Amino acid sequence: MKKLILLxxxxxxxxxxxAQNSHYAKGRWMLGGNIAFVNATFENTxxxxxxxxxxxxxxxxxQVGYFIxxxxxxxxxxxxxxxNVANTVSLQPGVRGYVVKDLFLVGRVGWGQTxxxxxxxxxxxxxxxxxxxxxxxxxxxxxxxPGLYYQYSRDTNSxxxxxxxxxxxxxxLGLRVFL
Length: 179
Known about the structure:
This protein is mainly β. The protein contains one helix and nine strands. Mean pLDDT is 84; it is low at 12-19.
């Protein structure tokens, strides 16, 4: 995990993050979020036996961000995932860096809780996400943001010694307001 965070920070530093857009100026705020609908493959391991299943997942992810330097923001997301099997809520601190004009890279890591339907089971969740997107400005401070993301999520149930892992590539759509 530390290696992933270090890799993200080094990547942003290597690009020099000199976005020339005043939307991304030091001291500005960013409010908004993403939505996505994906088919996800889950691998469940219980007592050494692994099974796979595919589920449709709807994701809503509100976000707030603050630009600590030109083109580089610290973010905080609350991630909500809904499927026919389970619902997950997690808190995800992260980073966003504009590398070329309105093209950005994102990375975040989160912890939360998954509630499995039909069993009233609550399990711990760990997840991380990396991605790339673009800000298309619809108004002076409002942007529509399509993005491509890879997300890893692991649910751990200490009572049943089971683990559920999902690895998802999704195309999401976001909306941001820059203040």
